[in-house]
Amino acid sequence: MSFQQPPQPAYILHSRPFRDSSLILELLTPGQGRIGCVARGARRDKQRRQQSLQPFSPLLVTLMGRGDLKTLGPVESAGSAYWLRGRAVYGGLYVNELLMRLLPVGESQYQVFAAYQNLLRELNALAGEEADELLAPLRRFELALLAEMGNCPSLDYCAATQGPLEPTAVYRLERETGFVPVHRHDGAAARADEFSGRELLELHRALQGGELASGLLTAARRLSSLLLAPLLGEKPLQSRELFKQVYGKK
């Protein structure tokens, strides 16, 4: 008899055809994180696929089987789908691809799941007409994801002094240790991996639930890019390429 798990919340991150009539779905769940399953006959049952097996739709899914690739059982709607518009669609696809690339399989991700739900609510509220609308929600999600994965050092802590950051000081990101003070000669150019204490402390507050002010977006982008680069490697993100094809390089 096939092992059946209790129903659990889920979002679909990715789907691809499998055999003649099925789909392989990659799901994000709170208790098991990223997990793959087979939706048998889903390509044949167009009504089921169109109504429930869509990205950005909160689901309640039942998974069966003990292996890494589960079988999808009953699926119920867990709320209204998020109908992202314009550029916000590509923001959602970008985040789904990030989660596919970065999250390990089968590890609980309660905080990531909650951050993902909050992000979808933010994206759903956007008109999607301007790329700038996406910047604050995406940067905040990137940094929250990196922090949950243990790939973002504490943004209020100096690794050298083992104490709080000073707002007026300048710090350099060292991946293995965290943020360390920088003592630059007058006139020396700032590096991409350097941040003011004020920037880091305000980013820390934003991740604790505060607003990510527009003046912090450049620093947030530099920091997330530095931290994501070694994790993503040389393979480009398809969602970014698709965004460029549709909207150009804005």
UniProtKB/TrEMBL annotation:
Gene3D superfamilies: Nucleic acid-binding proteins, Recombination protein O, C-terminal domain. The keyword Isomerase does not apply. Keywords: DNA damage, DNA recombination, DNA repair. It comes from the Bacteria. It holds the Pfam family RecO_C. InterPro entries: ARFGAP/RecO (IPR037278), DNA_rep/recomb_RecO_N (IPR022572), NA-bd_OB-fold (IPR012340), RecO (IPR003717), RecO_C (IPR042242). Residues 8-77 form the DNA replication/recombination mediator RecO N-terminal domain. Belongs to the RecO family. Involved in DNA repair and RecF pathway recombination. NCBIfam families: reco. This is DNA repair protein RecO. It comes from Microbulbifer flavimaris. The lineage of its organism: Bacteria, Pseudomonadati, Pseudomonadota, Gammaproteobacteria, Cellvibrionales.
